[in-house]
Structures are given as structure tokens and as C-alpha cells.
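Carboxyl-terminal processing protease, Flavobacterium weaverense. C-alpha cells?
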Amino acid sequence: MKLNNKYFPILLFSALALGVVLGGMLNFPNTSEYLVKNNSKSKLNKLIDFIDKEYVDNVNTDSIVNLTVDNILAKLDPHSVYMPASEQLQIAESMKGNFVGIGVNFYMYKDSVAVIKPVANGPSAKAGIESGDRILYADKTKLFGRKLPSDSLFSKLKGTIGSDIELTIYRKSEDKKLKIKIRRDVIPIKSVDVALLLDQNTGYIKINRFAETTYKEFMEGLIKLKKEGAKSLVIDVRDNGGGYMEEAIAIADELLPNKQLIVFTKNKNGNVDKTFATEKGSFEKGNVFVLLNENSASASEILAGAIQDNDRGTIVGRRSFGKGLVQREMDFADGSAVRLTIARYYTPTGRSIQKPYTKGNEAYFKETDSRFTNGELYEKDSIKVEDNIKFKTKKGKVVYGGGGIVPDVFVPLELEHGNEGTAYLLQSGIVGNFAFEQLDKNRRVFKGLTFEQFQEKMTATDVYFNAFQKFIFGNGLDLNFGKSKAVVKRFLTAEFAR
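C-alpha cells:
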């Protein structure tokens, strides 16, 4: 009989309780090895040892420990979590801002590892790897025809800095196999996607997460934009789930005058830690706009809250996620880690933007889905605000706590009510897969075009739109894009350009 993992602790402890009742009737060894004082902390360790040494079948006690830790943390809050070693390594690399590898974007296309594109100036690009190449072997390890998961592929291609790997590739455009030796190097994982001018006076910076290098990347972009004439600044943190709050605070410091409060935290002992802006701000005068949506969380909300509460700029978009908890990480020797909530943070006016989580973790994370059905992604008047959690900025603007940052200027979802499936789809990787497969048929189709000619090719006809609709139906998804053609075509154009 297969048991659902979530019921295993209940069944395990029920079995032990039954054992106490039946103990006098069974052949039980006469030992006091597992008799312990009624100490809750030592109980768990003794129980695991007991199972490991005496249980009738072989049991992976590590899996029991992981399950126990998960269940303990689930009783606390949605953001106190346990991360196995495999997941923790990926998260750590993402937050560090770099890893050691060969520098390619790839995905499994049919039964092959297909290169979407090599990272600019990375080891693969320098060695001559091209978009569309199929990686057949990494040294002598066969990669095709095995449908390997992404983490297995990453482990084959990553390594130590300066180490060599020989790839056997198939180049479709030349119909031949090649052996290419690549020396692994540090590959940056950018957290600032782009910094460019929207017009002569308006700079735009897109931040995808707050990692160790985010403030540095932001400043590089800001300095460049100021040199190009930017007098106003748009900071885009849509779909940015957060990261290191220190990086968000450092960016806010560049935008706020000296001694203005950025954020403060409070722990269970009531200790308050306030963080103020310093004198170093490099963009304290120009107009600031922060773009938010329902997937903007944590550090993104700290930045937006500091700008909104200090009357420094305008928040544009839709109500943010609503994460007002601060975590600290505890690492274990096996590479796993626990991320534990240690405090709440508050915006300068004193509001907590943490949304309720009393109904459990599943309901908590599905709350953003309910915003489709209750209409708040389409109409500002549908946003539920708590009138009893009302605050005022120094200039008298009313702001609310209790569940995310409510924007000053509301921008509705472009899709019609009822087309939520299309919204989710366009944010998934399937658009990129379609673009790759289309380009893979003829990689010269866009060669030599100007940007204007490229846009014309993508939008003048419905060739790619119709092909994408057919692609979606072919993948078993019953989504008709007829009422969302303009939005879908724009997503397709952007993905082809990328």
C-alpha cells in the first residue's frame, strides 16, 4: 500500500502509541537505551535513532527528517521553509549572481539538448557554439535520447573554474558533427535585465530579482542613463519575487533624501531596527515611477513602500503580492538549509503589507489566483483594502496595510475577464519553446533586418500568431486566442526579438 507522505508522521506516531498498549503482549527487548527524559527536543533525535537501528525494514531516515522539518515549518508561516541540498545550491547560485559553467541557454527539444543561445562573451560563445546547436556528448557522457532532467544536465556542464570539457555537437545549418573544447569560467546571472532610455528624458531599469549584485548592476545602469540625459526614472519590479532586502534598501537610498526612513523591522521581542537614507543619494530630484504587479513581492515591496510612503514617486500597476516577513537562513553540513522568519518589516508610515496566512499555506499562495476571479486585476474598485489599517504619508496621501502595496495609478490586465489561462500561458516558458522551434526551421529568416523591418515582419500578418495557436492546440491546450490577438502577438514579437 502506498502512503501519502503528508500522513506518514501521523501514522508513524499512531503506530508507536499502539505499541505502548500492546507492549506487554509482544517479544520486546529488555533495554533502557531509548528511555529518555520528557524533553521535546531530544525526543525527535531519539525517535530517529530508534527507527534507524531497530525498525524491521530499512528506512531512509533522512527522508523522515526532511518530512518532519517540512511539517514543523508548515505550522509556522508560508515563508519559513526547508530547502534540500539540490534546491539550495541553485538558489544560492541565483542569489550570488554567478556560477561556473560553459555559458549557454538550452532546453530539451524532443530528445536533444538544444542551445537557445550562448551567453554573450561567455566560454561557449568564445569557443564557437551557436544558437541551434545540439549537444550530443559532454566529454564521453551521452546527452541525447535520454530525456535527462535539467538538474542532471546542469551538473554535466558545470564544474570548477578553469576546467575543460569537450562537447560533441550537431550543427543543423551545416549538417555536420563538431568537437569543441570549452574552458569553464564564471558566468554572471544578471538581475538587471536592461537599462535604457524610453525617450530623451526618461530612463528605464528592469530588475528581475534582488541578488548580491543587484545594487551594483542598478548603479551601472543608472550612471549610464544619467549620462544619456535621463531626468526621470522608471524602475520595473513586475514579477520580481524579492531577494536580499539590503539590495532594495541600497537602491532606495539612492532615491531618497538624507535621513528619510526607508524601512523598519520588529522581532518577537519587540526590538525595532530602523534604516534611514544617507547623504549618498545620486537620484534624489528627478521623477521616479515604480512598476508593480501581483507577482511583485518582498524586497520589491520594500522599495515601492519606501518610495510611496515618502511621497518620493508614483507607484504604477496592480496590487503587489503582500509579503512583509523577513527570513534568516540556517545552513546544514549536507548543503540543505532552513529559511526561518525572524521579523516583520514595516514601511515608513508604519504599515505592515503582509497579507493574512491563517487559512494555511495553500490558500495563501492561491490568493493571487483569486484576484482574477474577484475582478481586481481588471478594475481598481475591486481591490479589497482594509479601512481599519489606514495610514497617511507626510503629504496626506492615504495608504493601506494588510496585503500588498496598492498602486497610485492602476493599470488593468490587458486580457479580457475570463482569459486567465492565456495570462498564465504567456508568462510560461512555452512561448520561448515555440519561438525557438520556429527559428530553428530557418535561422536566416530574420538575418540583416532592421528593428523596424523585424517588427513589420512579425506584426503585418498573422503567420506566427496562427502558427502559435496551432502549436498550443497541438500540445493539448484548449485555449483560443481570438479575443487576445494583439497581446499574444506582442508577446511573440518580444520573444522572437529576445
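Residues 1-36 have pLDDT under 50 and may be disordered.
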